[in-house]
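chain below, 262 aa
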Amino acid sequence: MSEIKIHRSVKNPNVAQFMHFFEDSECVYILLELCHNQSLNELLKRRKRLHELEVKCYTLQIIQALKYLHSHRIIHRDLKLGNLFLNDKMSIKLGDFGLATKLDFEGEKKRTICGTPNYIAPEVLEGRAGHSYEVDIWSLGVIIYTLIIGKPPFETTDVKATYRRIKMNQYSFPDHVPISDEARDLISRILTGDPTARPTLDQILMHPFMTNCQIPKLLPQSLLACPPSGQYIRQFMPQGMGYQSATSLPRSLPNQQDALRQ
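prediction:
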């Protein structure tokens, strides 16, 4: 019931609106606003990778949701592609507060080991020192990497191996995937093992990755299936920033069933 208590108290444009709940003898059912365009997880399955302009737009909306939650002493603790839904206007709606927690006071540390393997922060796995808002920032870094590269940075076929890579901060940027210096720098700053060394949400907003071009408020629904055109990109990105052209991004094929592990 903690999930219901937290979620129903949240009112933000980038958080899925809590509508109602009911229960029977076996289950509790939660009704949220309808998000017509599924989640970023399904989007990435279709598109394989996103253009950095799209990633900036989604990152901005995720940060707006997190700033609201953190200002109300709420840590989401399960930030991942599958919990980031898209409504009919292609706006991000953060959902699934099943692992969320509310701090009783500023500076409190939580010690419950929880999260989704590919997105979980190292301090959660270590457990001893506890964790706080920085776990959501870590997960945001994983999301940015995943959307640009096409798969999570620490992913392996074995959960224990994934946890070892997270604890040892073992990840790399593949040579065959184009990525800007700004994106690489921001991801590297976020995915640091020391939570106190990670940038704050406001610092991420001021990073060159987020400030070196105009970010669209919303994206067209055509991007659910196809990469943005060069003409669309040039509306927002200065000339000379075409390191990641639309033609360099993979196009999804009909009925492809490649699954991205979460």
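Confidence is low (pLDDT under 50) at residues 242-262. The chain is about 35% helix and 10% strand.
thats it, cya
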